[in-house]
Amino acid sequence: MLIMTIVYLILLLLLALSARTKYYLYAKTASSLCFVVIAIVGAISRHAMYTLLLMLPGLLAFMLGDIILAFKSKHSLLLGIIAFSIGDLAFLHFLGDYHDFGLSSLLLSVIALISYVFIAKKGIIDFGELLIPSGVYAFLEGLVVMKSILVYRVVPTRFFLFIMIGMILYLISDLVLMIFKFKKKSLAIGAAALALYYGGLYCLAICFFFI
């Protein structure tokens, strides 16, 4: 795991250095693929292939969404939101086996949706044509983060601890990314969003080493 972690960090460094160059897409693809490889190696080493098959759709959707966002086309942000939403649904399906759906599962989603509507209504951030897709995504993300917290409360293992931490970092990274994309394109804010996001994905990947 140590060697893969070092490789992952090197790829993230190359990703940062390649920003605004023609190599950025390749660096981002390699970084995204790396966390999937870490998850696969962890699952193989711990004989957890069935669990990997349940989580792999979510990991692959996150990887695809990340790669799509590297493109600067008109529809890349929308397609990225769709891919990440699919990833959220896949993880919800996986976590649903460990905690039944209830009102408590909706707590963070409701907070996220109310906050989103407030931000949009007040014109704090102009989401434009992404208003509805972003709202749906915010709801799903709140739902999957809350579900990961509830599952860890029921099954307090290191495996689910890393999933919970990964999901929380994933949520925080999107909040930072929202500011970067729609409000203030600062290099520091963009770097913080990437660090939080890849830190979250790293937690989702290494959880297999603790199953």
TrEMBL record:
Major location (coarse): membrane
Statement: the UniProt record of this protein carries the keyword Transmembrane: yes
Residues making up the signal peptide according to the UniProt record: none
Family (UniProt): Belongs to the TMEM86 family.
Protein name per Swiss-Prot or TrEMBL: Lysoplasmalogenase
Location(s) in or outside the cell: Membrane
Membrane topology of the entry: Multi-pass membrane protein
Keywords (A to Z) from UniProt: Membrane, Transmembrane, Transmembrane helix
Membrane-spanning segments: 29-45, 52-71, 77-94, 101-119, 131-152, 159-180, 186-210
GO cellular component annotations of the record: membrane
Pfam family, one: YhhN
Keyword Membrane among record annotations: yes
Domain of life of the native organism: Bacteria
